[in-house]
Design brief:
Blueprint lengths: L8 E4 L2 E4 L5 E5 L7 H14 L3 E5 L3 H11 L6 E4 L4 H9 L4 E4 L7 H14 L3 E6 L5 H7 L8 H15 L6 E6 L3 H12 L7 E2 L7 H17 L5 E3 L6 H14 L8 E4 L10 H12 L7 E5 L5 H4 L5 E5 L3 E6 L2 E7 H21 L3
Parallel strand pairs: 3-4, 3-10, 4-5, 5-6, 6-7, 7-8, 9-10, 11-12, 12-13
Antiparallel strand pairs: 1-2, 13-14, 14-15
Helix pairs in contact: 1-2, 2-3, 3-4, 5-6, 7-8, 8-9
Length: 362
Amino acid sequence: MITRRTTRQIHVGDVAIGGGAPISVQSMTNTDTSDVEATVAQIHRLEEAGCELIRVAVPGQEAATAIGAIRERIRIPLIADIHFDSRLAVTAVENGAQAIRINPGNLGGPDKLRRVVDAARAHGVPIRVGVNSGSIEKDLLKEHGYPTPERPDALIESALRNVRLLEELEFFEIKISIKSSDTLTTIAGYRQLAGRTDYPLHIGVTEAGGLIAGTVKSSVALGILLFEGIGDTFRISLTRDPVEEVRVGYELLRSLRIRERGPEMISCPTCGRTRIDLFPLAEEVERHLQTMESNLKVAVMGCVVNGPGEAREADIGIAGGHGVGIIFKKGEIFRKLPEAELLPVFLEELYKMDEERKKQGS
């Protein structure tokens, strides 16, 4: 049983973070934010995949002002990612950003930070204090050294120093992130930080890599932290289509039995008995599952002999053979079909079951 760390609660739009709220899955667009059409299109795909918070880069005034047009056309809360320029933070907030991510210490001094905080306070916008290994103050690096698994102190001290800058301005709608590209440093850093503050934490491994390397590194670090009750919202950072980040995020939560969204797919790794091109079949089924919301268990198996037995707990499954295949339910054959008809009929039956489950309030 996982016991969540007790934290304060903040709200980003209508999404509660911390204080016992469900752990939220977020992502970040990789479009030019000033290109409203492209950005909105990507966010719509992310919404369909279950993304609950979306962050956009704000490198200039055009991107900051575009936030208003973007927010009008999306359903999930929008977070503006700001580096160095306090004016961009203020413009983003005034144009509808529902949270901002900043490093308070690098905005150009107390007066500029105050203007950002005043804007955030006036618009009811929380601030994420984001610190990573590459942005630590020189005096902290000199005192503590570069963050390592054995000594992540510089990360923690930098984050808490920046939090104090906000607290001195009597601003407390805060969440914190400390990012490292090293898995063990990430784990050690968040463990230490969790023991020193009750603000909600955004967790993640930065610059984690592509689909495989990034998924493994993020799942190891975040899986350990979440199992220990640390983390209130997170992003799986991948050099990939951001929709993949959301898919990995929900699978991580499912594997820990923290949250389940949509069907669970089980599939065999293939062997010499496989007589169907299983890889594209599994990918196509998985693509359709991303748009579903019920808690079905779906199997994609490569062998009609062992498939139904090995996946007998699946609500519905598909298995291929020599030019033919079967659809099975709870281990029992439902239909036998020519290979060309197998996927369309399977998907039709799958959508029917999804609708039935939703009506039952699954």
